[in-house]
Amino acid sequence: MPIDAAKALAAEPRTGELTWTTKDVQLYHLGIGAGIPATDPDELRYTLESRLHVLPSFATVAGSGSPGVISGLSMPGIDVDLAKVLHGGQSLTLHRPIPAQGTATATGRIAAVYDKGKAAVLVMRTEVADADGPLWTNDAQIFVRGEGGWGGDRGPSTRLDPPTGEPDRTVERPIREDQALLYRLSGDWNPLHADPEFAKLAGFEKPILHGLCTYGMTLKAVVDTLLGGDVGRVRSYTTRFAGVVYPGETLRIRMWHTAESTRVAVSAVERDDAPVLADTVVEHS
Q: Does 29 qualify as catalytic in the annotation?
């Protein structure tokens, strides 16, 4: 069996150093669509080093691209075909605001392995701290097609009841044709997002946008629209990747806002509002 759940769960955590600079933060922000309009003071907070603040979803690429997915596939007990892998969901907990540049220690381990019958789900947990203490905790849910069915724990359901009533805000965000090519420069080099032939092998008509790019675009929309542009108000951010996005499409982002959290649903406008992100919650102050 390509996935040895017991071996994966028993493996020693892996520890490594993460280092990032303001250039890394700026590149990430550009990769999720920041900087339009280029001279807008609200956008300069994402693109100009003298005003720079860090969108919390930068944690998913800090130092090494997409650590939850790529690192998870190289853990002991995990030997799977990359073409069968999809990023199923992402959870991020912020312990304090992320500095615009820094060095930290990342400790990663497989926290859970679930048997979904026709697929397996790996939960790769990465905990990051610097000299001043904990910074963030990332959980990446890695969906591996065709690797379930060994009779293991199915795991908890991540499905939430749909939000009720009309959304408080709805915004649309266009995705550039080169968005995936720009975003992958932050470190997620999976050819699924750039190589048409590899995308076809994986079952897609053409390269798809990184789920974590949509994840970042969505959080930026919530911060800019409902949180006054204050990235420090974000406490946690969870989503389930419900469908693909193709570069050139438009995201429709619906938000149901309360004092302590915002429910979000994201869909692809050009495909009759096909779901993209579901069960999405931003907890905030």
A: no
